[in-house]
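Pipeline run #58 for the internal structure catalog. This entry was flagged by the ingest filter as a single-chain record with no existing model, so it goes straight to prediction. Upstream metadata was stripped on purpose; only the residue string is passed forward. Reviewer on rotation: M.T. Logging verbosity set to normal.
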Amino acid sequence: MRLLPGLLFIALMLPAPAEKLSPMARAPDWSMLNGYQRTITRADFERLIDQVYSPDGGFWSYATINDQKVTLFTDPTKRTPEFTLYFAGSETTCLPRPYKYRTRGISNDPMRPLKGLKIALDPGHIGGDWAQLEGRYFKLGNDPSVEEAKLTMITCQILAERLEADGATIVWAKHGYEPTTDERPDTLHHEAIDALSPSSSSVGQDEVFGLPVSSRRSSRSGLSFTEHRIDNEAALLFYRVAEIRARAALVNKAHPDLTICVHYNADDWGDPDHPSLVGNSRLIIFVNGTYEKGEIADDDIRYDLMRKLLDRDAAQEERGCDLVGSQMLQALGYPPDNFNTSFSRQITSVPSVYARNLLANRLYHGPVIYCEGPYMNARDAYYRIIAGDYLGRRTIQGQSVPSIYREYALAVERGVLEYFNAK
């Protein structure tokens, strides 16, 4: 049908569909995925979507599929396509992927079995002057302070020494206790206002950066844009988003074969000025997956999901998390966490391994093992944590135990050696 001149003018003036992006994300360049054309069959694609990445079916609200292709759309109306992926006809006709991450050792030196492999280490959190802002800091009476970034850095330094002795090249996501990002909370007020505004793509979710949506709305005047609220949101964007995005950009340039995110977990310790200890630690390891429907509404998250899926990270992440998770359960002796929720689900036979869509395990290219270690404020770990790192064994609470940092690092190293079939 031929448009009349006036109607043509109106059509040209209509705005393009607005992109929906998660906080601080750039609009995705979908052409970057063209290198994955015909690298996967329809059966494998559907299996990964339904079993790993979108078990609640949210992905299919934005996609149509047939035996030849899957097409993604900008919104559930499916009027505006954003990317089409063509399938291979069979497993034997799959084309090679643009970049293949090594999953087996290539060294013939039994003393350096990881030689030729790159492993990225991401010590969780920033620490230093930022530890209290991050809320990953507490101090109990006259005991030494507990700062998660220090715990993860000590563990990663020990782990790096061991992996380097095994021959691996280490890529660091951060050094010391300074942020990787150039942003700071006071540079992110505009982004904070965007994240708090009713037009934000985050509106409609139960939580945004840990803030319940209901607490961010006013029944009469929409959102309450107080300086305090904006400052809080800017701080959250700084250490939960900008910092992780900066680390991912740094690590992805190096193309590591494996990325290991190291964290210590915690239960609610109450008032930071009067923290309390809880009973027992639990262990959990995360594979990237279980994207919620509300998350998939964002263009960049759909893109990241597709990149992870097409890199075929799922099988390797599951295998790596199984091996590291098993070693941590055995070495540290803490039970697995129970984390079945709407946004996380157990995905392998190892009870501590769950699929969850975290910013870090989504943005890092290639397989990612995301470790949550002992609880910082649990009685069965706290006294070992404040004892610091040491060689050999010490008697702590009546038990002769090694350094908890070395025990953690050694368990991860053993799992990594198994992952690369180098043990």
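catalog note: The two ends are 68 Å apart (CA to CA).
catalog note: The first strand starts at residue 63 and ends at 65.
status: ready for reviewer M.T.
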